[in-house]
Amino acid sequence: MNSSKDQSQPKKIGLALSGGGARGVSHLGVMQALMDHGIQFSHISGTSAGAIGAAFIAEGYSPKEFLQIIKDTRLLKLLRPSLGSTGLISILNARFLIEKYIPHNSFEKLKIKITTSAVDLGEGKLIYFTEGDLDMAILASCCLPGIFRPIVINGHMYVDGGILNNFPVEPLVGNCDLIIGSSCNHLPVVTEIKSFGNLVDRAAMIAINSNLNVHKNLCDVVIEPHGLGGYGIFDTKAVDEIFMIGYEEGLKAIEGNERLKEIVLRQKAG
């Protein structure tokens, strides 16, 4: 975010993607809208659902292509816990997704730099992954505590990075000229809670939104669809709707934000 740089030079644009389960599909819609208008990213940072999205876009898949992969592989159902399970279940079954679609399994070989985050359960601190094996780092970032067994990497136990920071903007600060944040956890006002699942989801959203404004303030542009409050983190049947909500919000951001307009005009002129 260095405004003193020559405005004629291409900007390094960073993108931060929050966690949010199925609601994270909205990130794909946001990215598709931005990319359709010529906006490209030099660095993507994400946690949980945002980490998965970051990896596939950085590999070169379009957001629409990754949406189709999600539907074809039933990825969200694979990540959904079994309600009849008597104990923690393994998230390692999702490892095949990287093996099949990103076979080099390497941060360094991605076409765009990405950062994913997870929490070191033993040391109680947030860890950023930027190199090495991609599959285990992504699974660690998605590993909801209390549902999935922790992912062990080099003797350390890791769980979902959203516990400590569900909107990992910090890796982009100082490394990008413009930071766009996509957050999928807008908290609507409600007057009743209809089920235990709704109660758990609501409580989780309140917790992860508690320091959201701190991270928003690190962004130059924040895109936060307000139509996602009715979707749960395991709402696997609504991915097309969620994608379109994100896409429409991305278009609104381009139309309503002067900095994004400037970038789009520059891309068209160049």
From TrEMBL:
Protein source organism: Mucilaginibacter jinjuensis
High-level lineage: Bacteria, Pseudomonadati, Bacteroidota, Sphingobacteriia, Sphingobacteriales
A Pfam family hit: Patatin
Keyword match Hydrolase: yes
Occurrences of domain PNPLA (ranges): 15-173
Motif (GXGXXG): 19-24
Segments carrying motif DGA/G: 160-162
Record flagged with keyword Transcription: no
CDD domains: Pat_PNPLA6_PNPLA7_NTE1_like
PROSITE patterns per the UniProt record, alphabetical: PNPLA (PS51635)
Protein name: Patatin-like phospholipase family protein
Alphabetical list of InterPro entries matching this protein: Acyl_Trfase/lysoPLipase, NTE, PNPLA_dom
